[in-house]
Amino acid sequence: MLEISKIRNVDLDYLTYLLTTSEHDEEIFATADEMRRKYVGDEVYLRAIIEFSNVCTQNCLYCGLRAQNSSVRRYRMSVQEIVERAEFIAKLGVIGTVVLQSGEDPYYDTKMVTEVIMRIKSLGLAITLSLGERSFEEYRVWKEAGADRYLLKHETASPQLYARLHPGDSLESRKAHLLELKRLGYETGTGCMVGLPGQTPYDLALDLAFFRELDADMVGIGPFIPHPGTPLAHSKGGDVKTTLKMVALTRIILPDANIPATTALGSIDKDGRLLALKCGANVIMPNLTPNVYRDKYEIYPGKSSFYDTDLEAVQKALKTIEAAGLRLGRGPGGRRRIEALV
Question: Which SUPFAM superfamilies match (predicted)?
Answer without folding.
Answer: Radical SAM enzymes
